[in-house]
Design brief:
Two copies of one chain form a homodimer.
Chain A lengths: L10 H28 L4 H21 L14 E3 L6 H11 L2 H4 L20 H20 L8 E4 L2 H4 L2 H13 L4 E5 L9 H11 L3 E6 L3 H13 L4 E6 L24 H18 L4 H8 L7 H15 L5 H15 L3 E5 L29 E2 L4 H14 L3 E7 L3 H13 L5 E5 L17 H6 L5 E3 L4 H13 L5 E4 L23 E4 L6 E5 L3 H14 L4 E5 L3 H6 L2 H8 L4 E9 L4 H4 L4 E5 L8 H7 L4 H18 L23
Parallel strand pairs in A: 1-2, 2-3, 3-5, 4-5, 6-7, 6-8, 8-9, 9-11, 10-11, 13-14, 13-15, 15-16
Antiparallel strand pairs in A: 12-14
Keywords (chains A, B): Magnesium, Metal-binding, Thiamine pyrophosphate, Transferase
GO molecular function, one term (chains A, B): transketolase activity
Catalytic activity (chains A, B): D-sedoheptulose 7-phosphate + D-glyceraldehyde 3-phosphate = aldehydo-D-ribose 5-phosphate + D-xylulose 5-phosphate
């Protein structure tokens, strides 16, 4: 599997032969080393960076498809540096190859075009790189190798490889056969107790080619890079520390000024490659489509087509649950947007509520959402990391389907998508008190609050088919971050809801059922809107006027003008929040005297309706709470019923927390 | 590595020889199969359960240390079934071995004593089992093999092994040499494209012994189980589907009634083993300590000793940051509680703020928190899963130190601890706008809200050394769930805070600085309390009376009587929340007209003080907001300054969201 280390002195002959090509590498490597040594670095980082200097220089000088004058050229090789430790090497490469103006930019994601990914927790960059390679593979299939013909290189650390997310992503890379992905890595600077070697074996077992090279041996590095270009699998190049004798084998050539800047081998090669790419691009038959997708624009007439396709798909959907509607929307989208890439986790298929256990992998084929979906099995976290990479690559719209419960696993990748402001669509199935048999471990409680707390993420929790369509629309139009649809596998208990009485779902919150002179506002989302509607009918029979509000998306609703929010939520009267989830954060809409009807504990094993009863999320419980509250507040003020919709003198009562 | 499959017909002779011992296994397996076939199961589950029937019966009949009459005996073998799919096999075993009363209990965690873990996402049960084996190893070192001499068996699914958390936990099991851990697994029921074989190789690369056996061959299973008992490494037993001929080799014996219930081989062997254990236990010199720890009780005079040790350790702590104080508390605790087990993640050591990068593994030795800590490297998620297992095992108090940022990775394991109501202590370092260089990926924003939303979890965010001690106290006394201390590596900007003016930190929230006739209440937590105090001094110079409140623990504060909360937060006046985190959920304390000063975006790369300024979490910004708000609300009512601490007529204003 691994190339033999060329520690043989007979290699010297070959080295002399190659020296014409390699002297440039050796000189640039030396220049990079001088730059590195000028930086203030902790000792272990210095060791690692110096060790990786020759392999990385060889890559940049002779292989990397990178034009320093156009660092965001779509067909460039992606050089991913996921940790701050390794960034000085990228800085050195950019200094040596690029114009001085670029070198002066801070080396941060979003500020320097050559930084492909923001640094984060170990392993996330490897998963993102898998996504980039996947995006390349997908685009190459559509546009051909004349337009899409690049590779993804990762300068990783040993700790990256040992994380769960990297191991999951590595399995996915092996499964998808991403042969244009290569990870360069070196063992830790200190003593290593075999963990590094174990990581290599694990990658090898995940369908990777693992090559070990002497990090100080230019010829070995050169042949490893050449072999990587021919590889049929993703490649891991382990750059091992040089034997002491070998470290000195590098020719001592002075750094030459003409090797840096636009005269560097990288710059010359990159400029030539890009020019010929531009010529091919200019006369390519799919040029317009490629341009549109790279720029992330919608096709012409998308809005009309989308509504038509959506309507058609919704009609042909089997059920009326939001989950059916959401997946129908996905199918409609996949017909219109060739750039849509859908990854699905095995957990997404936990649809079959009658069966007491999860569907097996073999039955998934039956339940496929889309003809073109890519199954990611159980590797939810690796999949979420990949989605980021697809979004970072550009040219594709990444989307995934997974179970609501696995969002905890995907969270650290999701956060990076939000932080880097990339558009990723998440369809989370199995929301609500849905899967009664699996115990509390399969019932979302605090997930909803924890997602709403994340900046730049839009969370949609639609209640019926109409709202699901509106939420799909809003999710597609959500700018600057990921968007998420939480979908419930149950039929709506109420049947089709009435048309909005005031406002629209696309504004994040609206009035479903308006009562003149409202005494109570019932605020709900998702499956609980139907319960709220039923409760309002019950209350009406008792002469209590209850308006029903649905807030499918807090983020959008919070963006609306205060006057709109006030009209929807009502200027006065009791506010009751109803959601089969933790009430954390609901005070924002309920105010201090509001009542929340939801879950303050984890779920348990029971059929769904029994769970709604167990947690008191029922029409009867809501009506009871409303009556009790109205009586108390009426008694306080000495009248039996308060004058509705009038500002009133109010003593700030005791703070209600999760009533 | 793997035992050869005995498909050789010459084995039949050996089988006849062994049949005296194995006829019981064969008969019980047949009885179990009848029970399984009587259940309503989806087809793939039926295939898997039938395949695992013989291996599991062999384990229960001949190896498992389990007394059905005392299923919670501390020295029992742990038989972990982490998925609902495999539970019917456990139910069959319990039916065949135990008394009828036990068999009638629902097979759920917390309701049936033989259920060791609640089902959840794939892989979490494997990680918990690693923790149980770790707990056994730790307890055996203290109490010797005469008291602690059991094993942990896991009945896993193929999907469990492919998850990141299982692979991380597998690495940890290999690193800690948990030779008393064995995982039984079988390939998926449908076609498998090599993923299962890859999983085996990955486990083998993580320091496990992997044995492949024919699931229908009793002799092969028997020898694999015997080899497992002698193993020096954790073992994975892959039970492969039988060759068609072999499946029939099982002797067709009728199920016999005398093999079930208390007369079963398991019950007889278990009762004998437990009786002799009880005899050894009765005269063991560490009997009292063992009993105390298994029951989770504190040693006598713990309170006084703890305060003394804590005081001493705090004094000898190097700095005055809460991180130093928190770790000093941990050292104090480790002196007093021999049952304390501390796992540390490499991320916990990101202490050195001067260094632009994380500390390398080699420098960790220098920074060790405790002499007895166990380093879990980069495998945070696997570590969190292990902590659950340690807590589930009993007899130990699991604790971990990790970086605040990695909590997203640990979240799905943390949730299981909260769901199962197990006490696990988390010390999270690097809280606050602390690590300026790593970019937004290393700065917590929404983590705090997402943790506070989780039921049964207590989150403590102390502001100084005194509060840290109180929070340690409260965390130790927190019942029925995990507790978490968020620790900041910075020195408190204000220096030592004054003594509480009203209330105590142990009640979750209290008044740090009281002003008579308060106009403003500044509510903060953690490092921001110092900023709030400075702001109150500034405001005092402008004749604005601002009381400062610290809420280190929302969960505890919410549990206090409403009158206490009202006195602390003030009956009226402007409330300002100050926290270097997302404001999600703060409306609970601020009310509708409150103002929140915090972060509405992810962090970025900058020194910490620059970040405080960038996000406007400064004394000046707070004072400016307070003045502006007081002026506006004053103008509204036609007077320049409102009468403080008096209920006032108030028009419900526009809803403020994240101002």
């Amino acid at each position: 599997m691994a190339a033999a280390l060329s520690t043989d002195p007979t290699d010297l002959r070959e080295e002399t032969q190659l020296s014409a090509q390699q002297s440039a590498v050796a000189r640039m490597s030396r220049a990079a080393r001088l730059l590195l040594n000028a930086e203030h670095l902790p000792p272990h980082a210095r060791t690692l960076l110096n060790r990786m200097c020759l392999p990385v220089t060889a890559l940049w000088c002779r292989v990397l498809r990178f034009d320093p004058s156009a660092p965001d050229w779509p067909d460039r090789d992606r050089f991913v540096v996921p940790s701050t430790t390794m960034l000085p090497l990228l800085r050195a490469m950019l200094r040596l190859t690029g114009p001085a103006t670029e070198a002066a930019l801070p080396l941060e994601y979003g500020r320097h075009p050559a930084v492909e990914v923001a640094p984060g927790l170990a392993g996330q960059g490897v998963a993102a790189a898998v996504g980039m390679a996947f995006a390349e593979q997908t685009l190459a299939r559509r546009f051909g190798r004349s337009l899409v013909n690049h590779r993804t290189w990762v300068l990783a650390q040993d700790t990256d490889l040992a994380t769960g997310v990297a191991m999951e992503a590595a399995q996915l890379a092996g499964r998808f056969g991403l042969d244009r992905l290569a990870v360069l890595v070196t063992p830790p600077a200190g003593p290593d107790n075999g963990d590094f070697a174990d990581s290599l074996t694990r990658f090898s077992a995940s369908g990777w080619t693992v090559r070990k090279v002497d990090a100080g041996n230019a010829a070995a590095i050169s042949s490893a890079l050449a072999a990587t270009l021919r590889a049929r699998k993703p490649t891991l190049i382990a750059c091992l520390p040089s034997a002491p004798g070998h470290a000195l084998a590098e020719p001592h050539l002075p750094p030459e000024e003409e090797l840096t800047g636009p005269w560097s081998p990288t710059a010359r090669r990159g400029a030539t490659t890009r020019r010929s790419w531009l010529r091919r691009f200019a006369r390519h038959r799919l040029r317009t489509a490629f341009e549109r997708e790279i720029q992330g624009q919608r096709p012409a007439l998308f809005e009309e087509d989308w509504h038509r396709a959506c309507h058609w798909q919704m009609q042909s959907a089997e059920g009326h649950a939001t989950q059916d509607a959401g997946l129908a929307g996905l199918r409609a989208l996949s017909e219109l947007l060739p750039e849509l890439v859908c990854l699905t986790a095995a957990s997404a298929y936990r649809l079959d509520l009658a069966a007491p256990v999860a569907l097996p992998a073999t039955q998934q084929a039956r339940a496929r959402l889309l003809p073109a979906e890519q199954s990611c099995g159980i590797q939810d976290h690796g999949m979420a990391g990949m989605l980021n990479g697809i979004a970072l690559h550009g040219g594709l719209l990444p989307c995934c389907a997974a179970s609501m419960m696995t969002v905890d696993r995907m969270r650290s990748a999701l956060r990076m998508a939000a932080l880097m402001r990339r558009k990723v669509l998440y369809l989370l199935t199995g929301d609500g008190l849905a899967l009664g048999d699996g115990g509390g471990g399969w019932q979302p409680v605090e997930q909803l609050a924890s997602l709403r707390a994340m900046p730049h993420l839009a969370v949609f929790r639609p209640c019926d088919v109409r709202e699901t369509t509106a939420c799909w629309d809003a999710a597609l139009n959500w700018q600057g971050g990921p968007a998420m649809l939480l979908l419930c596998p149950y039929e709506n208990q109420h049947g089709p809801l009435p048309a909005p009485a005031f406002g629209t779902p696309s504004r994040g919150g609206y009035v479903v059922k308006q009562e003149e002179m409202r005494q109570v506002t019932l605020i709900a989302s998702g499956p609980e809107v139907a319960i709220a509607l039923k409760a309002s009918h019950h209350l009406a029979r008792q002469d209590i006027r209850a308006t029903v509000v649905s807030i499918p998306c807090w983020e959008l609703f919070a963006e609306q003008p205060a006057s709109y929010r006030k009209t929807v939520l009502g200027a006065s009267g009791l506010r009751v929040g109803i959601e089969a989830a933790s009430g954390f954060g609901w005070e924002r809409w309920l105010g201090e005297e509001g009542v929340f009807v939801g879950m303050d504990d984890f779920g348990t094993s029971a059929p769904a309706n029994a769970l709604y009863e167990r947690f008191g999320i029922t029409v009867e419980a809501i009506c009871e709470k409303v009556r009790a509250h109205l009586l108390t507040s009426g008694a306080e003020r000495g009248s039996s019923l308060r004058t509705p919709d009038q500002p009133r003198t109010r003593v700030r009562g005791p703070l209600t927390t999760r009533p």
